[in-house]
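Allow me, if you will, to draw on your knowledge of protein folds for a short while. I have a record of one protein: its chain in single-letter code and its fold written as C-alpha cells. Kindly check, if you would, that the fold set down in the C-alpha cells agrees with what the sequence suggests. Thank you for your consideration; the sequence and its C-alpha cells are set out here:
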Amino acid sequence: MISPKVSMVRLVLAAFFVACVLASGMPGAFSQNVLTYHNNNARTGLNSAETTLNLSNVNSTTFGKLFELTVDGLVDGEPLYLSAVPIQGSGTHNLLIVVTENDSVYAFDADTGAAIWHISTLEAGETPSDDRGCSQVEPVIGITSTPVISRPSGSNGVIYTVAMSKNTTTGDYFQRLHALDATTGNELYNGPVTIAAQYPGDGDNSSGGYVIFDPAQYKERSGLLQVGNMIYLTWASHCDIRPYTGWVMGYNATTLAQKTVINVTPNGNEGAIWGAGAGLTADDLGNIFFLDANGVFDTSLNSSGFPSSGDYGNAFIRLTAKGGLAVADYFEMYNGVQESDGDVDLGSGGGILLPAMKDASGNTWDLAAGAGKDSNLYIVNRTSMGKFNPENNDSIYQELSGALPGGIWSMPAFSNGRLYFGPVGQPILEFEFKDAKLSTKAVAQTTTSFGYPGATPSISSDKGANGILWATENTDPAVMHAYNANTLVELYNTNQAANGRDQFGAGNKFITPLIINGKVYVGTTTGVGAFGLLSDEGEAGHSAPVAISSVKAKSTSGAEISNSELRSIAP
C-alpha cells in the first residue's frame, strides 16, 4: 500500500511536470483543440480556458505579431487547431489547419509557423472554379467554408472539407467532400465523394418531380457541422443567380455515404444558406438551427402551422435529424415575404445557440438568437419558435426592433451572459441578459466602427475572468482589435506598434479570429497572421519560413457602403 506521504510527493511531481509542459509551450495531452467554426456547435465563439492572454498583457508592448503564414489563395474559412499530433519523422506538433480558395489544405506548426504538409484537392485536369459571374468570391472558388475536424479519443484527427472545382476540358463543375488524415493530408474512407442530390419538388431546376442539385450553381459558404457520426453541409448561391434552392445534406463520417437530404424551398426558389460563413448550430439533442436567406415562403399554412408547400424562405429554422432531416419548427417574420422580395433577408447573418437561462420565476429557457439585414435582433424559444403570423411577431420570445443599425452580415458571440453583435458601419454592440431577457439597448460599445461586412467577434477568457473580445476590420491592411469584454474598452490593435510591426496583410470578408493556447490566428487574402506574447529575444514580426507560392487575389477595400447598396448585396 502506498503511504500518504509518497502519494503526496507523486502528486507534487505530477503537478510540476504539467506546469513545466504548459510553461514551455510544448504540445501535450493537456492542450486544447478548436475543431469547428466559432469553437463549438452553439457557435458562441468562446474559448473559456485561455490562461495565457489576459487584460494586463494584451497591449502593444508585450503582445504582437509572431509570424505570418503565406498560402496560395484567399483564406475564407476560419483556421482550426489540433493539439499534439504526431508527425512521422518530425515529432509531435500542435497543428494549424488552413484552407484556401485555390483548393488547398495546409497543416502548419501552430507554434512556429513551420510547414508540415500541403495537399491539393484538385483532380487531374481540374482547376478551382471560376467566379461564376459573381464578385462575392473571386477570382476563383475552391474551399470557401470552414472545415470540421473529428477527433475521437485516441485519434489524431480527420479533417472534413468541401471543395469546388472545374474540369478544364469538359467545363463540368464539381463539389466534393473530402476526409483527410490530419497527420499527412491523405484521403481517407475511399474519398473524396462527389456531391449529388435530389429532393421531391417542382421548384428551380426540377425534373420528373424532383429538384436537382447542380454543383455549378452553389458554393459551400457556411462552416461544416458534425453531430455524432454525421457531417452536415449547406449551400449558398452565387450572388442571387437562379436557379437555386435551399439544400442541407448529411453524410456518414466514416463511410462518406450520403444519408439524408432536405430542401427548404423545394417547390419555390432561392432560400440559400449563407450565415456570413457561420455554420449550422446544433444542440445536445441533435436539433439543428439556422437562418435561411431570401426565398419563397408559402403563407398558406397547414393545420399544424407549417407552410403547405414546404417552402421556408427567409425563416429561422429548426431541423430534426431523427429518421432523416425534417423541419420541426420555425419562425418567419410577419413581413418576411416583403423583406425577402426586397433582398432584406434574415440569412445574411449567422445564428447562435445560448446556454440555458432562468427567468425571475425560476423557469428555464433554451434560446437562440439571430439577425439579418433588417436591423432587428430576434431571440427565439428553441422549443417553440413562433411560426408565422401575418399580422405581427408577437409569438416570438423577444424582438429588439432597430437594435442593430446598418444590418448584420456577420456572426455574434456570447460569453458571461452577454451577447455581442458587429453591424455594418457600426461599433460592436454588447447586450446583457437579465432574468432570461436581453437588454433593449446596448450596455457597451466599441469606439471603432467596422465597415462592410461589420465584425464577427471571438472571445477568450479564463473561466469567465480576463475576458477579451477580438475582432478584425476588413481593410487593407487589416486591423485586429482586442477589447475588454465587459467594457469594450480597447486594449490593443495591430496599428499601435511603430513601423507597422504588427500589420499582417489585407483583410478578408468574413474574418473570424481564432484564440487558443496564448495565440491568436487571423486569415487574410494571402495567408494567416499569428499573434501572441512577444519574446525577450525580439522575435516578433518575423515571417514563418514557408516556401509556398501565392496566388494574388483581389483585396477588399473596406470602404463603407450605404444601406441601399448593402441590400443589393447577397450575404
